[in-house]
Amino acid sequence: MHQTKDSLFRKKNATQEQTMKTKPSLFVLATVLLAWSVPVNAADQSLSPNTLTDAEKQAGWKLLFDGQTTAGWRGYQMTTLPPGWKAREGALVRVSGGAGGKGAGGGDDIVTLEEFENFDLRLDWKLVPKGNSGVLYHVSEEPLTAWHYAPEVQILDNPAYPKNDQRQLAGACYDLYAPLKDVTKPPGQWNQMRILVDGAHVEHWLNGEKIVEYELWSDDWNQRVARSKHQSRPKFGTFKKGLIGLQDHTNGVEFRNLKIRPLPAKEQQGGSGTPPPNTHSGIGILRDGPEGVLVRLQSEAEPAGYLPLLACSHDRAAGGTEHPERGKHSS
After folding, report:
1. I need a surface site. Which of 133, 150, 171, 284 has the fewest CB within 10 A?
2. Is the CB of residue 185 less than 8 Å from the CB of residue 129?
3. Does domain 54-263 have CATH number 2.40.10.270?
4. CA distances from 301 to 206, 272, 281 (A)
C-alpha cells in the first residue's frame, strides 16, 4: 500500500514534535542528576580554611587559630609559645622538637589562652608517618605535664602501632575508651575531628562518624580510671573547666580549622556524674621577667602521695626543676 506525500509529511512532523517534547525532559533529568552528584558540604569546601561563615558567627562559633599567626596560644606552663610551634601555610604546625619539654615524650604542649567548660570543638589534624599527638580538654596547669590530669583525645598513625591497646588508638579517650572503629586517613591527609563536651556527656567524632561516647564522673568512668594509667593520680579528670591543649609528642603534626562554640553551663546533679571534690592550689605565673615561671603553693587539701610542683620554668637553665613524676606515654 502506497502512502501519499501528505501522509508522509504529517508522520515526519509528528516524529519531530515527539523529539522536541522529549528533549526538555532529558534536560531536567540531567540537571537533577547533576545536583545529586554535588557533595552536601560543597559550600563548606568552597570556604577558605580557618574562616567562619556568617551563620557560624551568629551561632556563637569562634576561631582558635586565624591561619596566619599563633595568637591565642602559649606553651603549657609558659607565657609565650615554644619555638617548636609555628603558623605555616594556613596550619598550626609542630615543626621541631621540644627536647626536655614537659609534654608526653618530652615535647612542649601548647594551650589556649582561654578556658572552656562546655563546648563543641572542631578541628582538622594531619600527621607524619608514625606520628603521635592528642587534643586535651579541661586542662589544668598543676601537674608537670598536661595529660596527667586532663582527658586526652588521641591522635595517632594507627597502622604504625599495631600492638597498641585499642584504648590508645586515634579518637580514643586515651587509655579509657576505645573508638568503635578505625576511620583515620593515612599520614599526610587531613582528618576532621569533633569533640563535644556538654556537662558530663562527651562525644568524639572523626571524619564524620561518632566513634566514642561516655559520661564523665560516672561509675563506669571511675572504674575505668581505676584500671588505667591514671589510677595513681586522684585529680585526673576532676576539673570541670580548663584550657584546650595540643600535645607535642615529639612527632610532626599540623592543625587547622580550629573553631569552638561554647555551650551553656550545666547544673550539676548529685550522685553519679558529679566530679569529686577538687581544691585548687595557689597558682600564679610571674610575668616580671623574660621567662614565665609557674609558682605553685601546696595546699593542705592535696591528696596523699601528690608530688607538689614548687617552681618550674620552661627554660631549665633559668633555674627550673625536673619533676620526679613526669612519665611518658607508651604510644
Report:
1. 284
2. no
3. no
4. 39, 23, 8
